[in-house]
Sequence to fold (219 residues):
Amino acid sequence: MKKIFACFILLFFILPAVSQDAVEPEKKAGEAEQVSQSVYTEITLEDFESTQYTDANLKFVKSKEQQASLAVRDQYPAEFNNSKKYLGVKLYAKKGDTYQIFPAKPLEISKYCRSISVWVYGKKFSGELSIMLQDVNGTTHRLTLGNTAFLGWKKLTINLPTKIKQQDDYLEKENTLKILHIQYRAANNSLHPEWQYFYIDDITATVRDKYKDRQSDDW
Fold:
């Protein structure tokens, strides 16, 4: 009886401690997320509301069969961010054909960037979308957003890997990241070309201020 009573007392004091240890990591994770949200903000780089896009913004290696066109559209816009206009892209392409959409204005990021997002309307064509990004050293990186094998609007996001140089070598300098173009690599079930469609809306970046050297060494 004494042994049973001793075990009960032991459990009475140990179980709350174990429960607290289990909750503590979740609490710390939540606090870290709150700090992250307060440091980072989402900025819009392109919303297609006022910029003009024509077929001149679309580049590809043309064969006898390839065709492509793009235009800013205003029918059935995305139901977010009070969107009125978006970019429509249509391509007559076979598997492996690659197309580049060049921005109508410079898309530059002067702050430290955690991620880049693009709202995309897919039509179940499994093409691959990528972003060609130039870092502060002038090196170009291809960042894969994902494929368009879905129907409807979807926010595609890519977190920037650490290999992308963002912080300036000299803290007083202010170089920028640049989105050079968006790339679409076509994919279909055969090697014969077919019409493929997708639509693009807000291009955004999640950013924070870069670290600045405000400490004076004159002491």
